Every structure is written in structure tokens, then in C-alpha cells.
Amino acid sequence: MEKPSNYESTYMSDRNTGNRPLVTLAEAAAYLSLSTEAVRGLLDAQFLVATHENADGPLLAMVDVKAFLARNADNGAGNLVVTEPGEADPEALLAALDGRSEEMARRAFDIFSGVFPEAQSWSLRQQARFVDQAKGRFEAILAVTGQGAEVDEALVDDLQEVGAAAAWDGSPLPQLLVVLRISRDLVVQTAVELAEERGGHWGLALSLLLTRVLPAMDRLTDALAQGYWAAMINRQHEARARYEHVVEHSSDGICEVDLDGVVQYANPSLAVILGVAPENLCGTALADVMGPLAPDSELAGLTADVPGSAPSRAELQVTRADGVRRILDVRTVTRFDDGEAIGYQLVMSDVTTAHDVEREKNEFMTLVTNDLRTPLATILGMATTLEAPPGDLTPERIRRLGSSIRGQVERMVRLADDLSDISRLEANTFLLSPSPVELAPLVEAAMAKLGHPDDVIIDLPPGIPVVADARRLEQVVANLAENALQHGHAPVTVTVASIDDSALELAVTDHGPGVDAGLVPTLFSRVHTLSRTNRDRSRGSGLGLSLVRSLVEAMGGRIWYETAPHGGASFRLTLPVPRRRSGDEPVRF
Question: What domains, with CATH codes, occur in the chain?
Fold first, then answer.
């Protein structure tokens, strides 16, 4: 591992050599089996530090030279062995080192803060935590060393997990490795110092100890690094897999194009949005795939941006090959490699529905306002007429004016009621009270309110129950019959088309020309009904069918339009029927 340039100088400056033996440059070179030029190079690089200077040159502390050799020689052996065997046990040296764990931990923080100056601003609590962790680390190192050259596999696995956890937490590997290197070198340095303090006969014990501690520490360091990098690779693979999953399953269309605008990759959603088979996207120019653009739009964003700049954004209206119009929100990001643009990534959101809803909402508000303005203007004109001198108005004219004002007010009330009912239905705040009710009397009551008894034929068998809110079902039938009378021709028939154990189908049919095929898809849309140019505004707001659909669906049924066999309009709706109990006869008609 390459150490920070100030590692050794920080490390060596931590030591106070006191009255320990000093050696000249030549003596240090001989001890290290190096040339004097090589040792001077180590001094210049601050891997060794001169503690004194005399006329012959720099002087080095012998203990530091030995520690340097022990830290950097293979297996820590070097030429430290003094041939006085049997007089000192490595286990005794280990015990002595264990007694220095607190001191080594504090020295470890001093060295670490010299290598990473930001640690100098740590709080006392953070420093104390580092020292406690370092002490535990030294005790663990010495315990492992005591086992001999073989390190317990469980400890290796634990360190791999530590490295993996550090990778997932985003901790930098260099700091982790520097901490381990500091710990390793401090154990060696302290062992050399202890051997020096206790005499040359400790040399064999020191050598035997170092042949244990250094391989063990190197293996532990390797385990941590392996765990770290394995986790980093897994993290990258997982992030890539997650990214690919999101892209492949995104509802937005995503593609990558080269500098010439040719599609290199496209997700399935883009094929759906553009109405193109997925296999026909890649290798095709994007402009060709998107079809002709609106005259005032362009494929924006395909220009090299500055690395790190915000994505460009444009809204395009395109017409697909099948004639379908689409409005797309396109976000473009330039892709760079070593600062050079190599292509573009585009994200396309289909905002057609949002645009249409906004347009329809605005149109809806405009048309409702117009429908209110017309009766208000009429009422205002009639009120002005009523302000004329009494002699100018006959009683009959006053009666007609009053009747007209009432009619216009009722028209506004119906519009307000329709709007209120539709809003409450859409907000799920409309309260219904469905219960079993007999159908025929309810329909007859609804027709009686219309005032057209001769124009409506009710052909319903008696005793047929349905599950519905009686008042709202009456409103539905009345609206359908009134719509048939206004837009079709009498007679209007109300019949039961079919019935089974779960639902009844009711049909309201007129004898008019029917509904134009182009209008059928929007019959129950409040906006398109309001905006229809051929509707008679004197007949009301046009919200009746929209409200009818909402009420029928709220009662658990559905409604649709069919052309009657004779060409008239037939509106059909289903309603749930009460569950038939065992032994009940089925309804026949």
C-alpha cells in the first residue's frame, strides 16, 4: 500500500529518542544493507528522520533504524536476531506489549491526525472514541498474534464483513487501511523499543514475534480490503441492476442516441408512446421514429451541453405513423466521456392526457359561464321591462314576464344542481341510499313529472324489484326520457330488455333519427356535451347524460347507447336486483 507522503515523518516525529544509542549515516547503511546514498534518500523522503547532526553528518536513533527495518523487511525478520537463544519468550514480549495498548492507542491518534489533519478538529468525545477503538484493535492484534502464524478464519470473515459494511456506508478505504497500517507499525515499533530497553537477549523473541504479527496483520488487512472491494463491486452491480429495472419498467419513454441522433437503446415504453415496434427503434434516426413534428416545434436538446449542466427540456407535439397525436415532455441530457460529448439520453413523458384535461377544464368553465350568462341577461332584460310605468304593461304581459323569469331561474337552478351533483359524485361525497324498490311505480312517478303522458309508453311488468336509491333512479329515468323527447321523436318507450339473478337491463328508446356515429363516443362526457355545436342551448346545460352515467355507476350499474332496430336512439342501463332467496320463483316477463 502506498502511504501518504507525510506518514513516516509524522510517525517518527512522535518519538522522543532521549539518550538512546545513535548511529551515523554509514552505520545505518551497513545495518540496513543499503548504500549511504540510499539511506540519504530515505532521509530526504522522510522515511527515516535524523535526530541529531554533527560534523560527520546526520545521526539516527538506532531504535528507529531497527523499527524501520522490522516494519519493512519480509515477515519482519531483517537482521534483528541476536544469537542468545532461549533467554526470552515471545509470549512475555506479547504480554509486555499488551500493557502498552493504551499508550499505543494514544500514539495512533497522534499519527492519524498528522496524516489526516481534519481529525485535529474532532471533539474530545470523538477523539476518546478513536482511542478506545484503537486500544481494542491493538488487543485484538496481540490476541491473534498469540495464536501463531495461522489466523482464525472466523476473524478473517469478520474483517471482510467490516470492510463490506464500510463500503456500503461510504467510508473511504484509504483511511481504513491507514488505520490498520498505523496499528501494525506501532506494534512493531513498540516491540522493538521494548526489546531495546530489555537488552539484546530479547532479539530472538522480537524476531519470532515479528514473524507472527506482520503476516497476520497483512492477512487481516487483505481480508478487510477484499471485503471492501467485493462490496463495492456488488454495490455497483446492484445499482446497475436497479437502474436497468427502473428504466425497463418506467412508464416514461427512455432512449440513448449518438451524436448523429441514431437510437442506440430504447425501453419498451418509448415504443408504446411512439407506436413503433421495439425492434424497429434501435439503429433508426430518432427524428424518423418520432414522425413529422408540429411546424413550430423542434427536437430540442440535441446540442452538446457543458458537463454537469442541467438537462434541457422541451415540449413537442408529434403525429405518429398511425395518425395519433401525442404531446411529449422531452428532457435531454448530454452524455460525456472524459469531457467529450458522445451522445444524448432522452426521457419522454406522454402529457397528452394532462393537456387535454386542462384544455377541457378551461372549455368547461367557459361554457358553463356562458350558460349562466344567457339566462341572467334574459332576467336582467325582463326586470328592466318590469320597471316601466304601470300603465305600459298589461296584466297578461306581466304574467308572461314572470313565467319567463321563473323558467330562466329554474334553468340556472338545474345547472347548479347538475354541477353540484357531478362534483359530489366525483369527490365521493355523494350519499346514496340503495334499497330494494319496485321498478314500475317508480318509473311512472318519474314520467308524471315530465308532463308528457301521451308521449311516453311504459311497458314494465309489475312486481319487478331493483336495488337503487329511489329518488336518484327516478331522476335518471326522467332525464333519459326528457332527453329522448327533446332530441328524438315520440313515442318514447321504457321497457325491460332482460333480467337475470344479478341484474336488470332497462331500455329507454325514442323514434327519432338516432345519434350521429361521430358523437357516440362523447355522449356521456360533460365537456364534449357542453361544447357540441349542434346542441340546443335553450334545452339546458347538456350535463344530463353525464350526470345519469355517474348516478347509474354510483348505484352499481352501467349505461350505454345503442341504435334501435327502427333507427332511433336507445339508452340502456343495468341495475342490480335483490338476491333471490331459495324457493323464490324467477321473475318472468
Answer: 73-235 (1.10.490.10), 250-350 (3.30.450.20), 355-426 (1.10.287.130), 435-576 (3.30.565.10)
